[in-house]
Design brief:
Layout: H1 13-37, H2 49-74, H3 80-104, H4 114-125, H5 133-149, H6 158-161, H7 178-196, H8 200-205, H9 211-221, H10 223-245, H11 247-266, H12 271-287, H13 291-296, H14 301-318
Helix pairs in contact: 1-2, 1-9, 1-10, 2-4, 2-7, 3-4, 4-7, 5-7, 11-12, 12-14
């Protein structure tokens, strides 16, 4: 006989639909990131304000829905078996992401990303399924607000950055610290507990989605699996295309010319002369195979000699009076 506290209630289709929308938005963002990284599009998705806002909105939705899901699954009494099975799946997924990004992006691998955060924050949020509502709300407000008024370089290191409070985050392709995101999870807990205690819960349960809604709900029910699989699939398409189209090379050339033009004009040289100078510089970099030293910052004495010779040659091209000057 199932204890009434552990009786599983019907799923709310609207919540699955929201999860489906969130996972589609996440896939769109990651597609944009991939296209940016492999130079298919000129915008830097990691820093562009519109894309950053888009990413933060998606992350807020994900963390909020984590809190909602905890209440839906364990609001009356924690179903430990189901909780640990799902938790183990999330932890395994987080480990796979860390291992995969360690090999593909060793300087910015994901050591505490979305899945890592979901695993830890789900545990930390469990007690708040049963605390007074005012306490849940108060703790959420403190956790969200504290990083706005406190930071310290101690948290800039990888080993402590997962907590939050950094002044400058260490390099990582995805970093979701406890502060402030545990507060967002608790907001989801608070919101769903309020819904559960009202007549709104019954009205939400009556929602019967149409074809589109059912499709989104299906994606929402499998959102964790989709999260694990979608990025490898996207990279499996975008990366080979970048090799065929040589997008990274053309992107490097565009970056070089843009940076050179800006620096040259800032020194008082006319735009036309700067264009000539920078094109000459680009030809020299390609001729002497200097892309790797330039981008890595590891410039040997021989590389520096080639760069200096190229600079003299290009300077003499726009200022002939410098020709022959050592």
């Amino acid at each position: 006989m199932i204890h009434p506290l552990h009786e599983k209630r019907p799923r709310l289709a609207i919540i699955d639909i929201l999860r489906g929308v969130a996972i589609i938005a996440m896939a769109v963002y990651h597609l944009g990131w991939d296209l940016s990284y492999f130079r298919f599009i000129p915008v830097d998705v990691g820093y562009d304000p519109v894309w950053v806002f888009f990413a933060r909105t998606i992350l807020f939705a994900f963390m909020f829905l984590v809190g909602v899901g905890l209440v839906l699954g364990h609001g009356r009494a924690i179903r430990w078996g189901a909780f640990w099975r799902r938790w183990a799946f999330v932890v395994a997924g987080a480990a796979l992401i860390t291992i995969g990004t360690w090999f593909t992006f060793p300087t910015s691998f994901v050591y505490f990303g979305v899945l890592h955060a979901i695993a830890l924050l789900s545990l930390l949020a469990l007690p708040f399924l049963f605390t007074p509502l005012w306490l849940t709300g108060a703790v959420a407000a403190v956790i969200i607000g504290l990083p706005q008024v406190f930071s310290n370089p101690f948290f800039n290191r990888r080993i402590t950055s997962w907590i939050g409070f950094w002044t400058e985050a260490p390099p990582a392709n995805d970093l979701v610290p406890v502060f402030p995101w545990l507060g967002v999870v608790l907001l989801g807990v608070l919101a769903m507990r309020l819904v559960d205690a009202s007549a709104l819960r019954a009205r939400l349960a009556e929602i019967r989605p149409g074809r589109l809604g059912r499709g989104l709900a299906f994606l929402g029910r499998w959102s964790l699996l989709i999260y694990l699989l979608h990025q490898p699939l996207l990279l499996g398409i975008v990366y080979p295309l970048s090799l065929v189209m040589d997008t990274q090379q053309s992107g490097r050339e565009a970056d070089f010319l843009r940076s050179c033009q800006s620096t040259c004009e800032a020194g008082g040289t006319s735009p036309d002369l700067c264009t000539t100078y920078c094109q000459c510089g680009l030809e020299g970099v390609e001729r002497d195979n200097l892309w790797e030293p330039i981008y890595s910052g590891l410039v040997s004495a021989g590389d520096q000699a080639k760069l200096d010779a190229n600079n003299r040659q290009c300077s003499a091209l726009i200022y002939p009076e410098l020709d022959g000057v050592k």
